[in-house]
Design a protein that fits this description.
Elements (H helix, E strand, L loop, with lengths): L6 E5 L2 E5 L2 E4 L6 E4 L5 E5 L4 E6 L4 E6 L12 E6 L6 E6 L4 E5 L8 E5 L6 E6 L6 E6 L3 E6 L5 E6 L5 E6 L6 E6 L3 E6 L8 E4 L5 E6 L6 E6 L3 E6 L6 E7 L4 E6 L6 E6 L6 E5 L8 E3 L6 E8 L2 E9 L3 E6 L14 E4 L5 E6 H6 L15 E4 L12 E7 L9 H9 L7 H14 L3 H14 L14 H4 L10 H6 L3 H8 L7 E4 L4 E4 L64 H9 L39 H13 L3 H11 L9 H17 L3 H10 L3 H4 L47 E4 L5 E3 H8 L16 E2 L1
Antiparallel strand pairs: 1-2, 3-30, 4-5, 5-6, 6-7, 8-9, 9-10, 10-11, 12-13, 13-14, 14-15, 16-17, 17-18, 18-19, 20-21, 21-22, 22-23, 24-25, 25-26, 26-27, 28-29, 29-30, 31-32, 32-34, 33-34, 35-36, 37-38, 37-39
Helix pairs in contact: 3-4, 9-10, 10-11, 11-12
Length: 791
């Protein structure tokens, strides 16, 4: 490594110096351990078992412990431990269930000393007693922990954790007889090596497997644990009940945790997957790492501080087949790159904004809110400590309150509960959902549902009340998209043909008294250019037609019609026409100015109801008024995108389900999946589990439908022997006892059985509910604190 600084640390008579450096290994490492004087490190893995010397400039290979032509599985190591009292003593945990000790003082090439094969499955962890030379502890996948006296050929004590797997075991640094064990069911147990029959204390530390634990080197009561729930927790074990005093949220499962020497609140962690970095945390500031080492290119499998009294050097091994020595001065400080501004919404809509104090004070143009300033400045100040090099921080937090009523989400809950997404015809679903939206005072959503019904329903079944208002005014009126005067003439029926034969077809103005309807028709003689196309002009009187009654009327003059000579009067006059005040003046002026129209033709004719005919009522549509559903798909797609962008993903998903195949192919699968996941997340946040399940069932996205099929398996342990039950019944095949015995009444439960996933005890639902009213501990007397239940 280039341009790395060198550090020299005086530890009594020993002096540690070096820099950040690395070496390539022959195979990926599973674990590392350092000797007592911090001059050598052992690296163990499935295909590697070597000792390296820690020199000032580099790693130097000293010894390869994998000897022989065909190394056995005893060399395949899951963990390794170098004794801190005896410099020649090593212990390894083999993947075949063996616990092996190694004596480096042997003159032969094979340094294997003793072999213990009492475990039936892989040994996950080995740990030497910090002060007792011959005491070795192991934890295995078979759920047992064994204590070995290296002067004997077999274990002296066996501890049953009554769980599926033991992931870590650690002797206490300050209490001679105590050790801690972590398990895959989320529990942590404290044992006294003098009492192998029962643990001293047990508590649930994490919601998933607990992969690691570590006792604080200075404070005898602090125990750090890390698990699959991406959390590192610090527990105070000096009280009667384990108390969580610190919690650090990481970004991946925690595989290893090690307290930093000489720094009370610092600990190092590495991940089991995804994240390759090593983080050093100050547990008092859990939201951002104190330091980060980013050298590894694959998952870090082992970390150890070089010396128990030196906080400046950290050793690590990785699956990328490298061994690193990290110097603390070369670590990255994430706080130096952190964004100084923060923004967050509260549960009730309040907005919190944090920024540098200098930025807030420099904003002199701020105007106070009407009714008083609603900002609440809160100052955070962190004193500089020479032993911890956190950046000096000073910030101001402003909280902006909001009106609770304006941000309530009651409409979302009510809509989700009242909407119908299946089980009825499409038109009824749309009408029902439109009614729900209208009652919740959401007119836009209600109108959208109504328009969807009009667009995609069968015209024969289109019975909306709003579409029948034209029939009351104009009789049976078919909806037309367009018609021409030429087609009108040919489709007028017998009356039209009779008038045409008489030469009386051409009429410039007609007045229909029942509807007080005026229609002004300008033919080709009134147009500016002979034979050009022009839009017909229609003038409606006091009773105008609605848009639903007449969509559009077009006048087509592409083909010239035969000219007729129109007599001065179409019908015999009943009385003398003196004046017609109902005719607009500009129409009379236009007719008078026309060179092809006589003065008599410019007069408006009045038709009685008996002599007149309805132009629209006898007209026939030239084509079907119903448009195919595919015509509206682009519009509906844009509408769904609009609702989703506005944050109303509920509307987008509901329409997507109700329309089904009509619109599904128009929207890509990734977009649909995003909408579904967002809506389901909102439903679950509001605890609308039934609605969420219905949405998942009605979805056609494979990624959504599988949500109901994951995490549906429950692993059941026998309440008597704590072994996993493999058969389908409630009789344990190991102890042959009934596992469904009520812990309260001690009778076999027939029917609904409630049990705790931590201790496997349970009973009748009513009995357990009554018990929890008076106590939170297991009624079987195991001491377990009940948190989670299954039915």
């Amino acid at each position: 490594m280039e341009k790395m600084s060198r550090v020299t640390t005086a530890l009594g008579s020993n002096t540690i110096s070096g820099r950040t450096m690395f070496c390539h290994l022959d195979a990926p490492a599973n674990a590392i351990s350092v000797c007592r004087d911090a001059t050598q490190v052992v690296v163990a893995g499935r295909n590697i078992f070597k000792i390296y010397a820690l020199e000032e400039e580099q790693f130097v290979e000293k010894l390869n412990l994998r000897v022989g032509r065909k190394p056995s599985l005893n060399f395949s190591c899951a963990d390794v431990m170098w004794h801190q009292m005896e410099e020649n003593l090593l212990a390894t945990a083999a993947t075949n269930g063996a616990v092996v000790t190694w004596n480096l003082g042997k003159p032969s090439r094979n340094k294997q000393d003793q072999l213990f094969t009492e475990h039936k499955r892989t040994v996950n962890k080995v740990c030497f007693h910090p002060t007792e030379v011959y005491m070795l502890l192991s934890g295995s996948q078979d759920g047992f922990m064994k204590c070995f006296d290296l002067r004997k050929k077999e274990s002296v004590s066996t501890f049953s954790g009554q769980s599926e797997s033991v992931r870590d075991v650690q002797f206490s640094m300050k209490d001679y007889f105590t050790f801690a064990a972590s398990f895959e069911n989320g529990n942590v147990q404290l044992w006294d090596i003098r009492r192998p029959d029962r643990y001293e204390r047990m508590f649930t530390a994490h919601t998933g497997p607990v992969f690691c634990c570590d006792w604080h080197p200075d404070d005898r009561g602090w125990l750090a644990t890390g698990g699959r729930d991406k959390m590192v927790k610090v527990w105070d074990m000096t009280t009667n009940k384990a108390k969580e005093i610190y919690c650090v949220q990481t970004i991946a499962s925690v595989a290893r945790v090690k307290w930093r020497p000489e720094r009370k609140h610092h600990l190092a962690t590495c991940s089991m997957m995804v994240d390759h970095n090593i983080y050093v945390w100050d547990v008092r500031r859990p939201f951002i790492p104190f330091a980060t080492f980013e050298e590894h290119k694959d998952v870090t499998t082992g970390i150890v501080w070089r010396h128990q009294h030196d906080p400046h050097f950290l050793l690590s091994g990785s699956k990328d087949s490298t061994l690193y020595q990290h110097m603390f001065k070369d670590a990255t400080r994430p706080v130096d790159k952190a964004n100084p501004e923060g923004l967050c919404f509260g549960l009730f809509g309040d907005l919190a904004f944090a920024a540098k104090e200098s930025l807030i004070n420099s904003d002199a143009n701020r105007k106070p809110y009407p009714g008083g300033d609603r900002r609440y400045p809160i100052f955070f100040f962190k004193k500089a400590d020479p032993t911890e090099q956190f950046t000096h921080v000073s910030s101001v937090l402003n909280v902006f309150g909001t009106d609770l009523e304006s941000n309530r989400m009651d409409w979302f809950v009510r809509t989700a509960q009242l909407y119908l997404l299946s089980g009825k015809p499409f038109a009824e679903l749309c009408d029902h959902n439109a009614k729900v939206a209208r009652e919740l005072k959401r007119p836009r959503v209600s109108t959208t549902w109504t328009m969807l019904r009009i667009m995609f329903s069968d015209p024969a079944n289109l019975t909306a009340p709003g579409l029948n208002h034209s029939h009351s005014k104009l009789g049976n009126l078919p909806l037309m998209n367009s018609f021409s005067m030429k087609d009108m003439g040919t489709g007028m029926g017998a009356e039209g043909r009779l008038e045409r034969s008489k030469g009386e077809l051409r009429q410039d103005n007609m007045h229909l008294e029942p509807g007080n309807l005026h229609i002004n028709n300008n033919n080709e003689e009134n147009e500016e250019t002979e034979g050009s196309e022009g839009q017909a002009e229609y003038m409606f009187g006091d009773a105008e037609l609605d848009d639903d009654d007449l969509y559009s009327m077009e006048h087509d003059n592409q083909m010239e019609e035969q000219e007729y000579i129109l007599p001065p009067e179409a019908f015999p006059l009943r009385h003398e026409i003196i004046d017609n005040p109902s005719a607009p003046e500009h129409l009379q002026q236009d007719k008078a100015d026309s060179p092809h129209v006589s003065g008599n033709e410019a007069e408006v004719m009045c038709l009685t109801p008996i002599e007149s005919f309805s132009l629209i009522s006898i007209s026939q549509p030239l084509f079907s008024p119903h448009l195919p559903a595919s015509f509206f798909c682009p519009i509906v797609r844009e509408m769904l995108s609009y609702y989703a962008e506005q944050g109303d993903v509920q509307m987008a998903v509901s329409v997507l389900i109700v329309l089904g195949d009509r619109i599904r192919k128009e929207i890509d699968d990734l977009t649909q999946e995003h909408w579904y996941m967002s809506y389901i997340d909102l439903l679950q946040r509001f605890e609308l589990w039934n609605v969420s399940n219905e949405v998942i069932k009605l979805s056609t996205c494979s990624a959504i439908t599988c949500l109901n099929q994951t995490s549906t398996t429950l692993h059941i342990n026998c309440s008597s022997c704590k072994r996993a039950m493999s058969n389908k019944g409630w009789i344990c095949n190991k102890c042959h006892q009934c596992a469904s015995v009520c812990a309260v009444c001690h009778h076999v439960v027939k029917g609904l059985f409630v049990w705790c996933q931590g201790c496997s005890h349970g009973g009748h639902l009513e009995h357990i509910m009554n018990w929890l009213k008076i106590s939170a501990h297991c009624p079987a007397g195991c001491g377990h604190l009940w948190f989670s239940f299954s039915v």
